[in-house]
Amino acid sequence: MTKRIPIPIVAEQSSSREGRLRPPPSGIVFSAGQVNDRLNRPLRDLRLSVIDQCNLRCRYCMPREVFNRDYEFLPREALLSFDAMEHLVRASIPLGVRKLRITGGEPLLRKGLTELIARLSRLQTLENAPLEIALTTNGVLLKSLARPLAEAGLHRVTVSLDALSPQTFQAMADAPDIDPRSILEGIEAAEAAGLAVKVNMVVQRGVNEHEILPMARHFRHRSATLRFIEFMDVGSTNHWSSSQVVSSATIIGMIANHHPLRRVGRSDAHEVSERWAYADGAGQIGLISSISEPFCRGCSRARISAEGGFYTCLFADQGTDLRPLVDAVALGAPLLSAEGLQRSAASLAALWQGRTDRYSELRWQQSIAEHRIGEKTNAPGLSSGRVEMSYIGG
Ligand code: SF4
Fold first, then answer.
1. What is the best residue among 355, 357, 386 to mutate for testing ligand 1's pocket, by most ligand atoms within 8 Å of CB?
2. Which of 273, 314, 355 to mutate to test the pocket of ligand 1 (most atoms within 8 A of CB)?
């Protein structure tokens, strides 16, 4: 049996260089308010993985030679319960979290997901606004689930779709039986259910750059916003090479040659994509340029894995196991009690305050120094044992 890829998750991790995370004693008072990390970045977005399994085997995320039928995914009993998830989401809100993204693996494979979303959709931010809830999916199951998800309180959905042509889609997703038209039907069902929709296309040179224009044309004049993502060195199984990166500047050029564009920019410093608008009013596209234009300075995202690992960077080589914290809190008070939530909020704040992550920026600086933009990933100071994207969500 294929062993699980060792997930770098530790029971107790330094919450700062001086101290270690321990569940604070009961009775501790945490004062709600924005919490900044060591680079003065607030915590605004929480990404919660609900399962590590997926029904596709995209080559850049879950290559089948690793994630095959013998691969040991998390057993059901290892997944965080909905009570534990709600506890951790609630505990993060006093720190300033405004947006929650449900991820996987493929989150629509998690049983009872609509129940979880219904619970979380009742939460309010520090500013007394509804917590914004989004979900990232490959779209395979979206057609039938879009309406129940919307009715449960989901606000937005981001659908991964890398090609319109069946041949390219099936090669990239390693899914010979899936027709990309079924994903498009899922997108239409989501729009019909009232969800705001974004479509993410990972662009890989030699694989699907010929799909850039067809995808752009398909989503012009539609409410769904298409976003192009530079192929990234996430995880350690996707055999990333800088030669396979198509830069955002190249993508913009390819589209603008046929459909003139004007730069719109970002709505705030924490938005990952830069928006461009079609000059003829046909809508907008987004560019996510982790390789050519890193955005670590504005990164306000934390991630929790399906088994309770807390990660402060997509490229982290280590996380913190939150389960001992949740268990310790549950021993002293109900998980959703004010006292229990305050204890976890204090611990999450300590973790965030110790954060120094800026992987993409370091990668970029190094490649600039070498005059080879984006060429090296495992340079000194940059980790090669990165956590897999399928484990913590993209
Ligand atoms: S590399 Fe890490 S710190 Fe930088 S933007 Fe990505 S997730 Fe944020």
1. 357
2. 314
Q: Given a cut of 60, is residue 373 above it in pLDDT?
A: no
Protein residue closest via CA to atom 2 of ligand 1? 313
Confidence of residue 13 (pLDDT cuts 50, 70, 90): very low
**Alpha-carbon dihedral angle through residues 344, 314, 71, 321, given to the nearest 10 degrees:** -20
What is the Cα–Cα distance from 262 to 284, expressed in whole angstroms? 9
Residue 66 has pLDDT above 70, yes or no: yes
Owner of token pair 């605004």: 44
CA gap 270, 300 in Å, rounded: 6
Distance 150 CA to ligand 1 centre (A): 29
pLDDT number for residue 68: 92
Q: Which residues pair with 286 in a beta bridge?
A: 227, 275
- Check pLDDT > 60 for residue 377: no
Q: Is the peptide bond before 105 cis (omega within 30 degrees of 0)?
A: yes
In ligand 1, which atom is closest to the CA atom of 363?
1
**What's the burial of 392, exposed, middle or buried (CB within 10 Å: 0-12/13-18/19+)?**
buried
Give residue 299 CA to ligand 1 midpoint distance, Å.
Answer: 6
Helix and strand element counts for the chain (H, E): 11, 13
Sorted by sequence, the CB contacts under 8 Å of residue 111 that are 6+ apart come out as none
315 neighbors 383 (Cβ within 8 angstroms) = yes
Single out the residue of 374, 381, 376, 377 nearest to residue 357, CA to CA. Answer: 381
Task: Enumerate the β-bridge partners of residue 130.
Answer: 124
Question: Ligand 1: residues within 6 Å at CB?
Answer: 295-296, 299, 301, 313-315, 357-360
Which amino acid, one-letter code, is at 351? L
85 C-beta neighbours (distance < 10 Å), count: 23
Q: Which residues of 172-207 are buried (b: 16+ CB within 10 A; e: fewer)?
A: bbbbeebebeebbbbbbbbbebebbbbbbbbbbeeb
